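Sequence in, structure out. Go.
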Amino acid sequence: MPLRAKITNPAYRTQPASTIPNDYAEFTEQPGDDPDDVLFNTLYGVRTIELNRPKKYNALNGSMIRRIIPRLKEYQKSALASIIIIGGAGPKAFCAGGDVSHLANDIAMNGEQGKLASKAYFGLEYKLDHLIATYPKPYVAYLDGITMGGGVGLSIHAPIRIATENTVFAMPETGIGFFPDVGGSFFLPRLEGQLGTYLALTSDTLKGVQALYAGVATHYVDSSVLSNLTARLGELVFKDYSDLRSRLLIIDRTIEEFNTGLPPKSPPHLAGNLRLAIDNCFQHDTVEGIVSALERERDAPRPPQINDWAAQTLSKLAEKSPTSLKVTLRQMRLGTRWDTNETFRREYHIASKFMEHPDFVSGVSARLLHKPPTKPEWQPPTLEQVTNEQVESFFSIEEGEEGLELLTRGMDYDRYPFEQDLGLPREEDVERIVRERALQREEVIEELVQAKDGKIGVREKVEEILARMCRVDRNGSVRWGK
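Output:
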């Protein structure tokens, strides 16, 4: 990973251990914590955070969280720290997730004590994720490699998220008897159409530039330029009175200096007829309704690739925990109404419930601990046996129940505040232009490309939306709706 390579730059220096404020004493080092599992470095105004467990694909654990949180609070107060960059060591992963194998093993070995320790871990993780989501300085995530589960929590709430040709994004939780946490309730339902619900239930992956098209990433560069990009960001100097948006826009333009073009033959994958099928099937509010819609797509006179996709998706869902599927779908529907504060507080409650449910230990043990992986024994084993009452129990909070105390207050939001500025155009952006004026296809594309200063991926994204959602009238103007 380029962050490690850049340590050879003489402008870098490893920062000495800082004094942790008394109000963050809970994040002090504990017995067994590894002092080298996260590396912190400085390059002028840039502060880098490098996850350093490459043999474990940089899986996130409590030790790492206890090191990152105080450092982020320190950087927040420092006038010398202008930009925070997080990445992962090694060639394979940014962060492959939370260390759930350790948690499940702890529950299996230590019963109630293990459950309490696991709940404490998730509380710690969500505090960090919420801190990132509400961080008042530019925070940049390099999604260079596997980015799943806990790694998504460290990156998806960053205003700037950079994918590379190595990016492999997924939320695989329903396959291990859990749910898409780390703020999944917030970011997944806010992806376009039913993409978020689809990714949440199926654990499908987005590779490379597909993460940009889907809205998971805001930028795409080749991994070979990350080292030089970091050095260039270190050269940026912001005016003292510049607000966060102004600083992010400067970083946005700087990243585009390193644009080496899109990979060849890389149009949006979740597009066209496939995207229409996803939106059609995953719009339903019950898992049974989704399954029935997929069965119809499988058996209908559709293009063969759509029939095959439906059959494969049904097979994927059949492997997941029935309880996880139903809880996750309910989470996707409710999450549209939650702000960032409520998201993490609610998810802590849901995670705590899953620590009491047998599917978590069964799923992690069978899929991650057992070699070779085996089939989990889900309880209940079928969708029909998971009742609405059981699902609702994951969301009902009893009066007086102790909730998660987050680290920041008063900075929450119900939509990512810089999404329109930094990401690719969304469908509603294209629809607004098409409905407001009679423009030809190329005029719509050029207007949005210019509005984004020629940003990489804009043309390809807009072309896909127009092809899927628009028709052309007798005058050659595009009209919304087929």
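Check: Confidence is low (pLDDT under 50) at residues 4-22. The CA atoms of residues 210 and 268 lie 6 Å apart.
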